[in-house]
UniProtKB/TrEMBL annotation:
Gene3D superfamilies: Aldehyde oxidase/xanthine dehydrogenase, a/b hammerhead (3.90.1170.50), Aldehyde oxidase/xanthine dehydrogenase, molybdopterin binding domain (3.30.365.10)
Keyword Hydrolase applies: no
Aldehyde oxidase/xanthine dehydrogenase a/b hammerhead domain segment(s): 27-133
Any GO MF annotation of the entry: xanthine dehydrogenase activity
Organism lineage string: Bacteria, Bacillati, Actinomycetota, Actinomycetes, Kitasatosporales
A Pfam family annotated for this UniProt entry: Ald_Xan_dh_C
Protein name: Xanthine dehydrogenase molybdopterin binding subunit
Annotated keywords: Oxidoreductase
EC number(s) recorded for this UniProt protein: 1.17.1.4
Broad class of enzyme this protein falls into: oxidoreductase
Organism of provenance: Streptomyces anthocyanicus
Length: 806
């Protein structure tokens, strides 16, 4: 076993314990960024001047009326920026734009003594606009050839030969919606400037170092004059990876110009209408199968809705392409990607970061094609799994390690869920109930862990031991409720060999750990855990030498377990507090900077080849649903999940992440339906679903009646911290089983072997129309998805098949 993976005697990792802030969360004692305003004197409040048009050129901006409003202190405009007027890493996001690019785009910000004064002042600012043509929908962008950013192409094998060898060829298209983050805490920042001009920003950000970088270049000062701290976030889900930077820059600019603290917080409507969402996608595809239903070739084009600026759309698209295979071996593939430019908010990271979109495409394809092949959907999926001993690689060239775990979780979830027995019960139920149908679907997950950009796969930590034996950890990861801090406490206590109560964790700050990566890509525990472990190992080695001198033995023969140092085979011992005090008087350094970088990664973005991921997280879910044939309304009756987290660092945290990720994925796939005004009237481009009253979120009522989550046992991950695996993002894709169960239930209203298409999100309305399609015999002959045997000489083609090289 590798040194990084090996666990010592009586480890604190692997012990189930609640979130480190659980008590504060439920009692209301936990502080978030905006709570700090009450502890800060003379705070000014920032409020946006929004233009409610989808696109237009600003021809005049008059602030006089706003400055006359009682309580208004200043109006920030582009003329006030001393550095670079840009909030993005691609330099395509002006902080104060001359051209409005989406409905609700802010062109100026008002600072007031009260939030109400700032609001009234913002309403008084006069903006003259020359309206310009706008592109709102993904379909309109494709029709207008409106794209930006990279257009990668992933190729593997010989696609044309693969189709020539295929007994069945199907084509189709699929468009599916984005998703609103709807974190409990909206975007917030609090900026202050001290007597030396040093800027200190409290920000609700997943990427403090990048927030620091953007604020630094907006203010035109070096990074060492800007410190960013993230206390905790009330949810992030990727929405706070890139988009907090400009908001923090507004607060920092205001503080710099006025000399007073500036508070920034979006209300819920502003957050919904001004911040980006999960990318919606459109896919066109062509797939070939042999006579046994095994995939021979795939040719697809994925178009992501990037919104008005690039933000993180390029890496999101890259990850979508890298995950279109999911758990399936595709010997011949050609997948092209492109980013549509639309006049909507700039879409951004969201849990899974393009992976769910790519995987949804192949799962939808298999769900649609299985009835046409005359194969049970579960069986079709299983036939196409990556197999051990075959030397199979992904379409981008990375060997698939641990393919046996794909089959292992698949079989275990069926055993745990008694799937065979329940399928017979469902068949009997459906035969007896013409107006209500049940279905059970099983789907798998293979999700790559690491940032696609190799440079981001590094982490840092600073660990301090005080003379009394207490320990303080600083690391580069941020806490958004996912339990990262809890795991880091356990990693530190385990590595040092001390009880958990001896260890405390400090808020994430850029002046303690520099140049950190975002807490994203499910890599937080891997990167920061590796760095914390490294720092603690440095300290432990120093302390072992001190203990050896006191115990009269060699350092290599000393173990520190549960806060006591002992020599192997000896009966002497030295308590941790005494050991630390002795080390101090011997002038032994009691602080250490830790560092970790993920080894074995390489990626060529131009050729779209390499091994960008450290390992793959594996899982499987079985979901049973019941659907009403009159309304399309449904309930989730039971869910069984088996998920691979390696050797769990903190099982209670990991199970919670699996449950939460699954429900959030089910929300994206079945409930959450973003809608914009696409008409040519005065509100063109306005987000229509801008409140919880119109945008439906999953809640207790969407929870399965029975919900069973099992973590795969004996699953040590070599080369990862204490043998663990990432858990944040992969469980979201387990919710594919919900959508596929709904498809099968809808099809059950039609003749045996009926194939149906199902919109995403699969709302009750969408399910109802799928039921109606099934009653009419399914989608055969509708010009959307077709199949033909190779013996027919020419595979059926449709107008939908607009694929390069087809």
């Amino acid at each position: 076993m590798s040194h990084l993976s090996e666990r010592p005697e009586k480890p604190v990792v692997g012990v189930s314990m609640p979130h480190e802030s659980a008590v504060q969360h439920v009692t209301g004692a936990a502080l978030y960024t905006d709570d700090l305003v009450q502890r800060t004197k003379d705070v000014l409040h920032a409020y946006p001047v929004q233009v409610m048009k989808a696109r237009g050129r600003v021809t005049a901006l008059r602030t006089g009326a706003a400055l006359a409003v009682p309580g208004v202190v200043r109006v920030l405009t582009g003329a006030d920026v001393p550095g670079v007027n840009d909030a993005g890493m691609k330099h395509d996001e002006p902080l104060f734009p001359d051209e409005v690019m989406f409905h609700g785009h802010a062109v100026a910000w008002v600072l007031g003594e009260t939030l109400e004064a700032a609001r009234i002042g913002a309403a008084a600012v006069e903006v003259d606009l020359e309206e310009l043509p706008s592109v709102i929908t993904l379909q309109d962008a494709i029709a207008a050839d409106s794209y930006h950013g990279a257009r990668p192409v992933m190729t593997h094998g010989d696609v044309d030969a693969g189709f020539a060898d295929s007994a069945h060829v199907f084509t189709g298209e699929f468009q599916f919606s984005g998703q609103e983050h709807f974190y409990l805490e909206t975007h917030a920042a609090l900026a202050q400037v001290d007597e030396n001009g040093q800027v200190f920003i409290q920000s609700s950000t997943q990427h403090p170092s990048e927030t620091q970088e953007i604020v630094s270049h907006v203010l035109g000062v070096p990074a060492h004059e800007v410190t960013v701290q993230c206390l905790r976030m009330g949810g992030g889900f990727g929405g706070k990876e890139m988009q907090p930077h400009g908001f923090a820059a507004i607060a920092a600019l205001g503080a710099k110009l006025t000399g007073r603290p500036v508070r920034f917080r979006l209300n819920r409507t502003q957050d919904l209408t001004m911040s980006g969402k999960r990318h919606g996608f459109h896919a066109t595809w062509k797939i070939g199968f042999d006579t046994e239903g095994r995939i021979q070739a795939l040719d697809a084009t994925l178009t992501a809705d990037g919104g008005w600026s690039l933000d993180l759309s390029e890496p999101v698209l890259a990850r979508a392409l890298c995950h279109i295979d999911n758990t399936y071996w595709i010997p011949n593939a050609r997948v092209a990607g492109r980013i549509a430019r639309t006049n909507t908010v700039s879409n951004t990271a969201f849990r899974g970061f393009g992976g769910p979109q790519g995987m949804l495409v192949i799962e939808d394809i298999l769900g649609r094609c299985a009835p046409r092949l005359g194969v049970d959907a579960k069986e079709l999926r299983e036939r196409n799994f990556y197999r051990p001993g075959q030397g199979q690689t992904t379409p981008y060239g990375q060997p698939v390690t641990q393919p046996e775990r794909i089959a292992a979780v698949w079989q275990q979830v069926q055993d745990n869920g008694h799937i065979a027995d329940r399928e017979r019960e469902i068949a009997a139920f459906n035969a007896a109930h013409p107006h209500t149908k049940r279905a059970l679907a099983v789907t798998g997950v293979k999700f790559g862990i690491s940032f696609n950009l190799t440079a981001f796969n590094q982490g840092g930590a600073l660990v301090l031991i005080y003379k009394d034996g207490s320990v303080l950890i600083n690391h580069g990861g941020t806490e958004m409720g996912q339990g990262l801090h809890t795991k880091m406490l356990q990693v530190a206590a385990t590595t040092l060999g001390i009880p958990l109560h001896k260890v405390r964790l400090a808020p994430t700050r850029t002046d303690k750990v520099p140049n950190t990566s975002a807490t994203a890509a499910s890599s937080g525990a891997d990167l920061n855990g590796g760095a914390v472990k490294n720092a603690c190992e440095q300290l432990r080695e120093r302390l072992l030498r001190v203990a050896a001198s006191q115990l009269g033995t060699n350092a290599s023969d000393v173990r520190i377990v549960e806060g006591v140092a002992r020599s192997l085979g000896g009966d002497q011992e030295l308590a941790w507090d005494d050991l630390v005090r002795t080390a101090y008087f011997q002038r032994v350094q009691l602080s250490a900077a830790g560092y970790y970088r993920t080894e074995g990664l390489h990626w060529d973005a131009k050729s779209f080849r390499g091994s960008p991921f450290k390992y793959f997280a594996i899982g499987a879910a079985a979901t049973e649903v019941e659907v009403d044939g009159f309304t399309g309304a449904y309930c989730i009756r039971r869910v069984d999940i088996v998920h691979d987290v390696g050797d769990s660092l903190s099982p209670l945290i990991d199970i919670g992440q699996v449950e939460g990720g699954f429900v959030q994925g089910a929300g994206w796939l079945t409930l959450e339906d973003l809608r914009w005004d696409t008409g040519d009237g005065p509100n063109r481009g306005r987000l229509l679903t801008q409140a919880a009253s119109t945008y439906k979120l999953p809640s207790f009522s969407e929870m399965p009646e029975e919900f069973n989550v099992t973590l795969l046992e004996n699953a040590t991950e070599e080369g990862a911290v204490f043998g663990s695996k990432a858990v944040g993002e992969p469980p979201l894709m387990l919710a594919f089983s919900v959508r596929e169960a709904l498809r099968q239930a809808a099809a059950a209203f039609g003749p045996r072997g009926t194939a149906v298409e199902l919109a995403s999100p699969a709302t009750p309305e969408a399910v109802y129309w799928a039921i109606e399609s099934a009653r009419q015999g399914g989608t055969a002959g509708d010009g959307r998805t077709h199949g033909a045997a190779a013996s027919d000489a020419v595979a059926v083609r449709t107008g939908v098949e607009a694929l390069s090289g087809a």
